[in-house]
Structures are given as C-alpha cells and as structure tokens.
Amino acid sequence: MLRIIHTADVHLGARHDDLGEQASAQRERQFAAFAATVDLAIAEKADLVLIAGDLFDSNVQPRRSVERVAAQLKRLASGRIRTVIVPGTHDVYDRSSIYRAYDLKALAGSTPDDDWVTVLTPDLPRIHLASCDVVVHGPVFATKRAPHSPLRDVDVEAHRATATWHVGVVHGSISIPGKTDRDDVVITTEEVGASGLDYLALGHWHSARQARNGATTDAYAGAPEPVALNQDRAGKALLVQLEQTGAVKTVTVADRQVGKTRFERLELDAAGITTQPALIDSLGRKGDPDLVLDARIVGVRPDELDLHPEEIEGALAPRFLKVRVRDLSTPPLTEGALPSPDTVSGAFIRDLEARIAELEAATAADREALGKAGVELGPTTRRQVAPSRHQQRSRLHRHRARPRRARRRRKTSKRKTRSASSG
C-alpha cells in the first residue's frame, strides 16, 4: 500500500490587503494549516507528501518564511516521509522563481544524493521514488501561462515497468467551457482519462473535490486554510491510499480537516427581532475567532424595528474572524387611509386590489367547477387556474410599502445629519 498526503494552494506569505489589521493573523493561520498538514502526514504514517503548486503566494518572500517551510519539510524527512513539490501559478518557475532563489531541498537538510525533498522543474519533470514504488510525474513550465496541456508530455507507458504506481501532480484547471478559457493552465477530463496515471493530484482550485476519469482518480485538495473568507469548502488535506490485490488496483481518497476557519450561515426572521441591540447580543453569543458568520435577515420587518447592518457588523467584528449582516427583509403594508383615487399611487393600488379580488373570486369558481367535473387539483392545475394572484399581491405589497421605505430613508438621513452635527 502507498499512502499519500496531498495538499496544494497554501499561499504562504499572502498579503491579504482586504483584511487590514487581520492580515497578519490570517497569514499565521495559513502557516498553522501547513504545519497541521505535516502533523497529519506524520500521524498517518504517510509515505509521501505531494504539494500541487502555490505553496507560496508569490516569488517574493523573506528568507525567514522560506526557512520556516524548510523546517516543516525537515520534520517530514525525519519521519521518513518524502515530499515532492511542483511550482504553481503564484510561485511559477520563471527566472525570478523562489525555487531558483532558494535551495529548498538543501535548507530542509536533504542532499543531492537522497530523495527526501524534491522540487520538480522543467529539467526534472518526474522522479522515481524506488522506496515507495512510485513514479511521480509533474510537468512544469518556465512561464505562468502553459504553452500546451501539461499532460501532453506525461508518458506513463514509457515508465510503466519502473514502478507499480504512477502518480501525476498538476497545478491547473479542469476544462469547463466558458469558465476556464482564460486560465493559465488547463487540462481536459479526456486527457486525464487517457493519461494512464493511477492518481492525479491537482492544485489551483481552493475547494476540495474528487472524480474518476477512465482508470484515473483525480482530486483537488483545496486550500488547507481559506485564502479568501468566502471559500467555505477549503480547510482540507487529502489522504490517498493506493492498494493492489492481484491485478486489481484501488485508489481511495478521504479528506482530513487541517484548517481552523469555520463558516456558518444564519437566516433570521425579522418578525422575531425586537431591537438592534437585542440582535447584536444574540449574534454575539456565537462569537468565535475562527468563525466566518453570514447572517441574513428575511421576512416582514415590524415597522418599529430599525436596523443598520453596518453598525451591527462593527459591533460584532471583534468577536468573529469575519461577520456579514444583510437585511433582506421587507416592510409591512402601509396602514390607514389609501392615497386619494385621483393620485397615480391611489388609482394603482385600487386597481390592483380589484384585480386580486376578481382573481380570487374566479379561482374559487373555477375550483368548484373543476371539483364538480371530478378533476383533481394538483400543483400544475392550481398554477393554471390562478397563475398571477401571488404576483399581483407582491406588486401591491411593494407599491404600498414605498411610503414606509421613504419614511425610513428620511429617518436614516436625519440620523446621519444629527451625527455629523454632533461630530
């Protein structure tokens, strides 16, 4: 059995300009996830760790950052676990490549005569790890944009007798017409299926996924820690096991959590919210520095409820990694006397109410007639009988709510004006 830990898209040293003061903390979280991946490999007694590109976020990194990575690779070597790395599109193997500037293999304590740490390059597109009975194929280009599919030059048959297992490592996108046309490195599922590889370790997509094309199992490990705070399927490393019984080969892939970031989505009924401070207190009880909270307020909002999402987010920000509050609620219908029938809004509302009443009366009559005819009223029949009643009510609701929204806008404007005056 061959046991592999597959990771990619660690993006160490990412700037995170959008996070402001949290940027440094997020960089540490990413490094912690990489270290957790090393811990996982050691705990699982893996034979090999594959890093499928973008270990670094760019080719410009301080030496201390490279040395921190080398120290983790040295831990793997000390545990008799080999590591194979391919450059990606962020740490591309061009003239300014970080892998040219620093000898990562030497920094990790590996020598030219051993295979504990290997960085594949255009001059070294594959390596035979005899102790693991595997050939790792990792075509690499000296430019960010690939001149052709990296799988074009993978020739498994020429090396079939060398080892039992043939594993590929590629940093790029699986072709999706209309979506990946502008990506720098693209491969097709047909190419994967025809590659002859037992397993293809992919990088570039930050969400974990796996598939099977032909006899080849392929998978994206995703980022071990989200690089952006909307990547709720990141945070994994993959444990890949390759076994052979007689002539039958099997490949199993299981994800393992290594990142700390958690994501939670909440949908809150506005009718159950009493005040903005009460909402802040309620959400605040979920406070967790590892949690990205996305709260949406829906339903019909009581007239006395005054919510300001930016103020809520500001009050909750210290308690979460990231919090987003969106008010998608709607105001209630206006009460009291309708506008004069001589006005446009008054005439419009009366016309809609009359049409709704006609539809409801027609619907009742149609139901009675159909019932007498022995026709069962299923969902489709009901839609045909009254196709627009709810649409009409929705239009009426929106139109009658306009005066209330206008009042809310005026109240908000006055509030801002008072705040500016007091400042």
Can you walk me through this structure?
Helix content is 33%, strand content 24%. By secondary structure, the chain is an alpha/beta fold. The strands form four sheets. A six-stranded mixed beta sheet has the order 4-3-2-1-13-14, with helices on one face. Strands 5-6-7-10-12-11 form a six-stranded mixed beta sheet. A three-stranded parallel beta sheet has the order 15-16-17. Strand 13 (236-245) and strand 14 (248-257) form a beta hairpin. Helix 8 (344-372) packs antiparallel against helix 10.
Summarize the structure.
This protein has 10 helices and 17 strands. With 423 residues, the chain is an alpha/beta fold.
H-E order = EHEHEHHEEEEEEHEEEEEEHEHEHHH
Helix count, per DSSP?
10
Show unreliable segments. Answer: 375-390
Major beta sheet, strand line-up? 4-3-2-1-13-14
CA distance, first residue to last residue: 70 Å
In helices, the fraction of residues equals 25-40%
Q: What class do helices, strands and sheet pairing give? A: alpha/beta
- Average pLDDT taken over every residue: 87
| Biggest β-sheet strands, sense, barrel | 6 strands, mixed
Radius of gyration: 30 Å
Content of β-strand: 15-25%
Shape: elongated
- Report the count of strand segments: 17
List keywords for this structure.
six-stranded mixed beta sheet, 423 residues, alpha/beta, 17 strands
Secondary-structure topology with pairs:
Blueprint: E1 2-7, H1 23-43, E2 48-52, H2 63-78, E3 82-86, H3 98-101, H4 104-107, E4 117-119, E5 126-129, E6 134-137, E7 165-171, E8 173-174, E9 186-187, H5 189-194, E10 199-203, E11 209-213, E12 216-220, E13 236-245, E14 248-257, E15 262-269, H6 276-284, E16 288-298, H7 309-316, E17 320-327, H8 344-372, H9 379-385, H10 389-422
Parallel strand pairs: 1-2, 2-3, 3-4, 6-7, 7-10, 8-9, 10-12, 15-16, 16-17
Antiparallel strand pairs: 1-13, 5-6, 11-12, 13-14
